[in-house]
């Protein structure tokens, strides 16, 4: 009964007609399709199938919703079963098949759709899920109620604790030496748990505080909460962790069920069908995401939530809460939008306590029998007081004068040491470095990884597992790399912090070998050459030469002297006391002994108070005891431990490294705004996806795709890639970085401050000459009969042997140089001075216990013209070290040949003019010193007085500094040359050419600074330099600031008018052509002395003149810090120094560069072993390149998101999906490969006269991103419009209504998806080239060989896909390919490779050759236009004109500094 067009064929003799309408040799294995899967006994009539119809039919007005009826009618008409004019209402005339139908000659074999399995949600596993979830929620609710009742009075149990240690009193009676020998005891020795604090400490720490949450905490305070363990709570805590893993396992089960891996290899075997599976997945996905977000948010508090809060004295653990604010750097870059977002963020931070840092510390005891409790927080011990039940950290005050510290020379008893150790903790900073698995787990516990993981689950579920595996591999690899780098850094910190060795300590009056971890304040430690000092301390006896380069960057060894038996104030942080202090982390190079009895020197080993020579019998007896006693032998060099652990300078530094202050840069501030914009944009894409894809569960999955690909998880990482690359390049040039984000800060430096000596100039100074002062002969009383006009300078003399004896002895003795082997140790200026004298320092045993040093002249015989008659020997019996505040040092020298004691004072020429007798100062003193300073000399002055013969030398040693240094006469000027480094001038010019203002901050004189500034080009050779100094000679009661021209010393009365005219001229020059240096080089420069600087600061006028002052002279270390901080208020400021007295300024600056030999100096963020200031130029070049690279990576990924969202929305509009291979190509190769390649752009060879933008939402950045996006949108829509105008396409439009949209991989075999794929791939690739422009800060993009190769390769690959005829490569991407038979029908040769059947009625998507070339040409035009937009509009003349117009209309708020 088959229609004539599909009549059964005539079978061959050896074949038979089977039930499926085909001829087969055997019909045993043939299934009759007309049975619809039923047995023949289950149907009323058994039909046989007609043969397959070999032709195609055309369905007019095809509608997938009624496709069965339409196809039946058209086929019936084709086969003559229905009239040609029949309509759908008439039907086809052929009934549909059913199992009950019989007697029909013919029927359609449209088998009824089998009933889809359904999930009733009452299955066993569903009930188990409900029960587990409900029981867990009930348990949590009951626990919360129980906890609330138990903790109803918890607020009163909390403590506010200060991080400032309270000082424990130490009883020491220093009235006489007998009392000094008494061992020190705690004031509350009978009750070790109680402490005696100052009244202020007690008031502060015991006063009731009405603070119940850390949000109300003042800065620097801690909130402590005690918690007791609970078995029930612990069980619930582990249940919550298990539940977290359970949600992940549940998602894995649902995904596995999707692929048929759960129940019998059948897809949806567990969840019945596709729709139910999707609904359950979405439900579990949301619940799991919410659960894990809550767990992450409460992670720090979670464990203690399942404990009961209790009094601190009963607590097993203590929760420490601290408010930690971000330090916002570069505050001048905010705009209104950023400020608005920050205000919203700050309100959320305060509302939800997001700025609270929480750490749980175990309550510990030294032993089970010891009731005293303590906790360790940030490597600092907090002890619970038995008196008031409050925790407090402690310190031990040993005294603040030399005499008070010397009173501790006998050390501690074992009991005292044990008690102090309990309060302070062991002298060992433990750095806990987790194992790699634990560190990896902590790395994954963050919101960014949670976001990535939840996206991956959607991709895995939605049959996008290939791309998910690629992304998953990239995420895992990046996490492994980050963890490895972090662990490497933490191990370096651990090696820096955890030092432990053996040392000799005086305990119970005996010397014992103990671990340095057992040291406590008050211990006396023996010092030996080669040992590393593990505490802060002061030298009790002997002298020590230490290497401090690892901490301060000071290249030269430093000499440390013993305390003096006087009431001189001692503060280890102040300059004067540093001479007597040793710091943890330094290495002893040499130490010397001292066994003298002198109140001015180290502590006597004889404690009777008087010097008494030992008899031979006593000496022999002591020697025998020392030889037999081993560790009881009295060491020659001893130090007193003053600070241990984190109270030391090194400990504080390690603590800052371990617990750094959170910084927020401009990128962080604006990234928040950018993320909000992206979220809004992605939200719009999500909504459009749901609307375009049918408002069903499948559309939700597509919407998540849009969200994941618009908000790229790699965006935050892209900002750090440039930093890492820049730091790596700096390291290759011997510039080391310990603070990665500062590399980007270096790209925005506007002011670069420099120390002079050793930084701009060569290391140290070169001796030049001595200019003596000639006075009339003094009378017998020592008084000069002449007046000041009789005193004058003589000609300068370079040969010291020709100087008068008084000057020679003074220059040979007035210093703090010592000898270690053949090396001179001390201040470089002192060393150069001493070398010039050719004298010697006698080594070995001293001639007397009173002598600090013995010096021997070089004269072995009479020298003509000299008053020397032989080799002269002098002894230094008293020395006052150089102090910055006094700008002088002094010595008392005993001349062995005459018995006279001579006093010499050396210091700055200004200071000695004030100190010396007025009659000894030449009338032209100021003019002469100014002349030498102008010629670049470092000028010191030397003064002298003769105390005459002295019988009691010890009496001189007891004289105060004022007594020693008073009533001296000037003797000479000491001149040194400070030569520029060979490359300083070129480096300064390059910095100025890079629009960077250079400033000198020096401790030298102002005129010397002016000379060096002119030599190096910091000051123009033709510029007029006005020096500001405080004039104290006027009759006014208050000191007045006077401005004088350094050329002629003429007074400048109206400095403000002069500067106003200068600024007006520079503003006018801005509009003219020319380079930035010529336009902004001033003709008037200012220089100020330290006194003038302090005066300007005190009067509030410093900010008015700050950017006009080029040279800051005579600055103390603290003055340098203040100067740098003032510049930081106006601009991004860098500081460069040698790491000596510049440490504070280097740490304070936005960018600090220490020219230090240490590979990684911890003085400043950057250090260079190349002691050239070209390192500063390199730092700025790499910083600018790194900043530009970070912004380029950011723009590339933002462009990826906008282009990808555009691709998704367009394909959703046409209900198509680009082929899976295209997704893998874009996400795995193009995005990842080019994102890495963009960071490899090479650094520009020279500094550009501008800095790259750092604004992620600035006009420049937005124009670049959204300009490209608009161009790409236009071309994509235009090419889709062009496609729909093609005549060959109009009858081949893809209609996805006939396909299940959840089967997305079937939606790519069409022309629409093909064109979208090709256009967008070109756009993705081109973005990398577009954003690699930036020749000002990076070299031409063609020199980025990795990018050039990848770019050319990707363009070539995509061009082949567009232009080539069907080939193996194109068919892999499902582009210009089709079914083999179809390709043969189109005139192509049959493919030799396998091709999956096309999901397309035409069986192919091969575009005509002409259209392919048109499409390729338009894509190239898209590329060219995008490149032109970036090159000529954003970076080129159009952008500059637009900026000029905007500035002309709105004004220029950009800070323009004089260069």
Distance between the termini: 101 Å
SS strand fraction: 15-25%
Flag low-confidence runs. Answer: 173-209, 594-631, 778-786, 861-866
Widest β-sheet, arrangement of strands: 26-46-45-44-27-39-43-42-40-41
Average pLDDT number: 80
The level of helicity is 40-55%
Q: What class would the helix/strand composition place it in?
A: alpha+beta
Profile the largest sheet. 10 strands, mixed
Tell how many strands the DSSP assignment holds: 46
SS field, number of helical segments: 45
> Which geometry do the CA atoms define?
elongated
Radius of gyration, Cα only, in angstroms? 43 Å
Give a description of the structure.
A hairpin with a 4-residue loop joins strand 35 and strand 36. This protein has 45 helices and 46 strands. It is of the alpha+beta class and 1459 residues long. The chain is elongated and about 150 Å long. Strands 26-46-45-44-27-39-43-42-40-41 form a ten-stranded mixed sheet, sandwiched between helices. Strands 29-28-38-37-36-35-34-33-32 form a nine-stranded antiparallel sheet. The protein has a six-stranded antiparallel sheet with strand order 17-16-18-24-19-22, with no helix packed on it. Helix 12 crosses helix 19 and helix 18 runs parallel beside helix 37.
